[in-house]
Amino acid sequence: MTKKNKTETGTICLNKKAGFDFFLLDRYESGLVLQGWEVKSLRAGKVQIKDSYILVKDREAFLFGALITPLQSASTHIFPESQRTRKLLLNRGELNKLIGSVERKGLAIVPTAMYWKNGRVKLEIALAKGKKEFDKRETEKARDWNREKERLFKK
Questions:
Q1: Annotated region Disordered: where (predicted)?
Q2: What is the three-class DSSP state of 150?
Q3: Which residues contact 70 (CB under 8 A, 6 or more apart)?
Q4: How far is CA 63 from the centre of its chain?
Q5: In terms of Cα–Cα distance, which of 113, 135, 136, 134 is closest to 48?
Q6: CA separation, residue 59 to residues 2, 3, 70, 92, 129 (Å)
Q7: Residues 6 or more apart from 38 whose CB is under 8 A from it?
Q8: Which of 112, 144, 123, 142 minimizes the C-alpha distance to 23?
Q9: Global confidence as pTM
Q10: Residue 2 falls inside a structural domain
Q11: DSSP letters of 96-141?
């Protein structure tokens, strides 16, 4: 019986910064168009989506700024580009909702998590509204208060 990696069965990476910088409204699940070396790097956990964002261009969604670090054992005949633009796979209805929200309401689309589902890489994206500085301070105060409350109840 073989032992599976933790990345094989669940989350590859999270974008915790998105929850701090934005109010996350609707969440969607999308697939990614990846190359072979990128999948190998994802299995090794060498990915970062903290500074990435999603743009809609020509009625298609693309992931910009995601950093997938190539492995040292990558093939010699390909030249891996770690921050290339990757296409998102969404159905037409979801894509139309995202386009309408971004154009009419002025919302942004941010990636929140990357994970495995049935052997395929999925990206969780969210419609997001930017937070102001006072909203961020309020979130920080609430988080600190909840942490303090847990400490008090523990004793």
A1: 132-155
A2: helix
A3: 37, 41, 46, 80, 82
A4: 9
A5: 113
A6: 43, 42, 30, 9, 21
A7: 68, 80
A8: 112
A9: 0.77
A10: no
A11: HHHHHIIIII--EEEEEEEEEETTEEEEEEEEEEEPPHHHHHHHHH
Counted domains in the chain: 1
| Amino acid identity at 127 | L
Query: What is the residue range of 39's domain?
Result: 7-154
pLDDT surpassing 70 at residue 110: yes
Contacts of 105 (CB under 8 A, 6+ apart): none
Amino acid at 32: L
What is the enclosing helix (H) or strand (E) of 63? strand 60-64
- Residue 131 is part of a domain; what is its CATH number? 2.40.280.10
Tens digit of each residue's pLDDT (9 = 90 or more) over 37-89? 888 888 888 889 888 989 998 999 999 988 888 887 766 677 777 888 999 99
CB 66 within 8 A of CB 85: no
Tokens of 36: 């072979």
